[in-house]
Write a structure and sequence with these properties.
By secondary structure, this protein is mainly α. 81% of the residues lie in helices and 0% in strands. Helix 5 (142-171) packs antiparallel against helix 10 (283-290). The longest helix has 37 residues, at 317-353. It starts with 7 loop residues before the first helix and ends with a helix.
Length: 450
């Protein structure tokens, strides 16, 4: 059976879908902690708790969302795309809601923060789970999947770049940041919905399960428990995503206090993330030469070395930006390859169990990412509290050292652990994936003739 190759337009459209995700998701990771501590007046540890408990709640919602889309009967527009597009509209509205500081007590603001962020997370699950499952439904070609992963990572980084460069300048246009934050969030959310709409219109679900039998809850449970590569990827991702997100959360504090100017964040983000956007074009070529696993380990190693060096030397805007760029470019490569791995793992699950549970498989992976995000958000808030951070004040040398450690040393340690996990235990090679796809296609032929 000949595998249908994706067009460039389809690959770009899929990547733009994660651009849409980023215009809502990145705001929470980069600016919401700062909004809670400095605008709402919530204590750093309490604000970190919002991320910890809300993300754990969201992680369980991911599994429910995955179960919902797997059991859902496909319409003429597909199984995943309609759910993604409908939910994206609600997500844009909720993104603005999370950046509103109600005129109530600090305790009331904390309750509002929990409620708004949990509801936002539920809606984000209903966007991200079908979007993530979509790539496995678009193609089974190994090279196309690697390119889809590159375009997805490109969309993600481009969103991080744009929000990193323009969000705070929009906020600072207002003398009262209580107005600036929601206005900036609204602008980003509108672009996010437009991006999801482009993805919806220009992608197609081409891959159907080998078996046409309906999926039951017991099938979903079996698909998860029998998929060893999925659990290895889940454990690895807990460490990589916590490292990635604590960098995003802590950069604004580092720029304001360690480098002395919060406005530097826009320029540093432009250089760091802009370089990463360009670098991910190398992912398909690197994977073709080294394979997915070795390419990931190469990225991990370079990132660890750059972060440790940056931590040990005195900080200046130039030296910090150069080394931070090297580290971010390096970690962006394995973070991009992960999206190709999850598509391979979905195929492995179908090959192993006979059921194509794409939604719940992706949801289990997303569960680990939400858990990692909760850890990084809580670690950032708790870390700021433990080192004695005081909002809108001159910080002591002890606090400055702590901010630097949270930004650079914490990620280096967690990425090292992730590298060891993938090196020692992940065994789903590109060659084996090709054989699995061939077996699945033969099963489809067998079903069609019986």
């Amino acid at each position: 059976m000949t595998k249908k190759k994706l067009t460039l337009k389809e690959k770009i459209a899929y990547g733009i879908g994660d651009l849409g995700n980023g215009f809502t998701f990145d705001l929470g990771q980069a600016y919401l902690l700062k909004f809670y501590t400095d605008v709402c007046g919530i204590g750093a540890a309490a604000a970190g708790g919002v991320f910890l408990f809300s993300k754990i709640f969201d992680a369980f919602m991911d599994v429910l969302a995955g179960s919902f889309v797997d059991k859902r009967k496909a319409s003429k527009n597909g199984k995943y795309r309609p759910v993604m597009m409908t939910s994206a509209i609600f997500l844009a509205f909720l993104t603005v809601i999370t950046f509103i500081a109600p005129d109530v007590s600090v305790q009331g603001k904390l309750i509002y923060a929990y409620a708004s962020y949990m509801i936002w997370g539920l809606c984000y699950s209903m966007v991200n789970i079908p979007y993530g499952s979509l790539s496995a439904a678009m193609t089974q070609d190994v090279h196309d999947r690697t390119q889809l992963a590159s375009f997805r990572q490109g969309g993600s980084l481009l969103a991080l770049l744009i929000t990193g460069v323009v969000f705070m300048p929009i906020v600072l246009l207002f003398s009262d940041t209580r107005w600036g934050f929601p206005v900036a969030a609204a602008a980003m959310a509108i672009i996010g919905v437009m991006s999801h709409a482009y993805c919806y219109k220009n992608t197609r679900e081409n891959i159907q399960a080998a078996s046409s039998e309906p999926i039951k809850s017991s099938d979903l449970k079996h698909a998860l428990t029998k998929n060893r590569p999925l659990w290895i990827l889940i454990i690895m991702s807990i460490f990589t995503i916590s490292a990635y997100n604590i960098k995003i959360a802590m950069l604004i504090y580092f720029c304001e206090y360690n480098l002395g100017d919060v406005k530097l964040m826009a320029l540093i983000n432009f250089i760091i993330i802009g370089s990463s956007v360009v670098s991910i074009t190398s992912i398909p070529k690197l994977v073709k030469i080294f394979g997915k696993k070795k390419t990931m380990l190469l990225g991990f190693g370079i990132s660890i070395i750059a972060d440790i060096t940056n931590f040990l030397i005195p900080s200046s805007p130039i030296s910090f930006t150069i080394l931070a760029t090297i580290a971010f470019v390096a970690i962006s490569i394995p973070n991009g390859i992960v999206w190709a791995l999850i598509s391979d793992i979905i195929d492995f699950g179908e090959w192993k169990t006979g059921k194509r549970a794409a939604g719940v498989t992706y949801a289990a992976f997303s569960f680990s990412r939400k858990l990692a995000q909760s850890i990084s958000g809580f670690s950032a808030g708790l870390g700021l509290s433990l080192i004695g951070y005081i909002p809108n004040a001159v910080q002591t040398q002890h606090v400055l050292f702590g901010i630097k450690g949270l930004l650079l040393l914490y990620p280096a340690i967690t990425i090292l652990i992730a590298a060891l996990i993938i090196a020692l235990w992940y065994e789903l090679t590109d060659e084996r994936c090709n054989q699995i796809v061939a077996d699945l296609q033969q099963r489809k032929l067998n079903y069609s003739t019986t």
